[in-house]
Amino acid sequence: HAIIFYISGDTVTYSLSGAKSSDFTIHASSGVVTLKNALNYESRSSYSLTVTASDGNGHGNGSVASTSLTVTVTNQNDAPVSLSSSYSATIAENEPSGTNVLKTGASDEDGHGILFSLSGSSDFTILNSGVIRIKSGVTLDFETQDSYNLTVTFSDGAASDSKFVSISVLDENDAPTLPSSPYSTSVSENVSVGTSVYDVDASDQDGDSLTYSLSGSGVTHFTIDSGTGIVTTTQKLNYEDTTSYSLTGELIITKAN
User: Of 216, 217, 234, which is closest to residue 225 (Cα–Cα)?
Assistant: First the structure.
């Protein structure tokens, strides 16, 4: 916009005044009014300004003229604004599905409802409240995946804002597993002392060191190697005395360095 006054051929100087006139600037000699700051309809929908022109002729009798300038701000859709620049959380593995992990949120200057969406992993879901939770039927496993990099998107249906979400999974001690247990085996009577009768092959998901022990009726006839899990005889076996033994193997977990 330009407002130009011609006064007796003298040089004209323009100035601008009025509430929030600092959002604009006027070129002192050309009268061209331009934006100084971005305008926000929600803060102010119109401006009533005053443009003043002065010829300042230097003879002490300069003239001044003023006119009004009304600026109407047109409303446009504003994108939602996230309440945080990024989001992060830490959760232990083996937490039950449906556990809440963290809450996200956004505001919308136009007062529109916020639609939440989540991408980056199918192990999590997001509610209409902005809460991120472990998806139904999913169990987090530190040994499989110890961190997630997700993106949460806030939308008003037309414009959107997206932010980074970091989720770290804490390790918890996992119990060792005994494949194919309970075990059973057959051994001939009168086998030599020290004969191997079974190899208890356990595994531990955490990679911890395992220590084996043995208990139960007749345990004095057998021993188990605490490091390998191999069960051997310690005495001669006699079918006529005992036809079977019921033993219990115990695993003691020692954390590896």
Answer: 234
Q: How many CA atoms lie within 13 A of 100 on its CB side?
A: 7
The vertex-66 CA angle with 64 and 69, nearest 5°, equals 155
Distance (Å, rounded) from C-alpha 96 to C-alpha 136?
A: 9
| Greatest pairwise CA separation for the chain in angstroms | 137
pLDDT greater at residue 181 or residue 88: 88
Question: Which one-letter amino acid corresponds to residue 138?
Answer: V
What backbone torsions phi and psi does residue 64 show, to the nearest 5 degrees?
-130, 135
What is the residue type of 123? D
**Angle formed at CA 71 by CA 67 and CA 72, multiple of 5 degrees:** 145
Asked if residue 51 lies in contact with residue 127, where contact means CB atoms within 8 angstroms, the answer is no
202 vs 226: CA distance, rounded Å:
12
Give 27-61 pLDDT, tens digit per residue.
888 888 888 888 787 778 889 898 988 876 555 55
- Distance between CA 189 and CA 212 in Å, rounded? 25
Nearest to 139 by CA among 100, 97, 99: 97
- Amino acid letter, 188: S
**Which candidate, 47, 46, 49, 54, places its Cα nearest to that of 16?**
49
What is the Rg, in whole angstroms, of the alpha carbon atoms belonging to the chain? 40
The residues near 186 (Cβ < 8 Å, ≥ 6 apart) are none
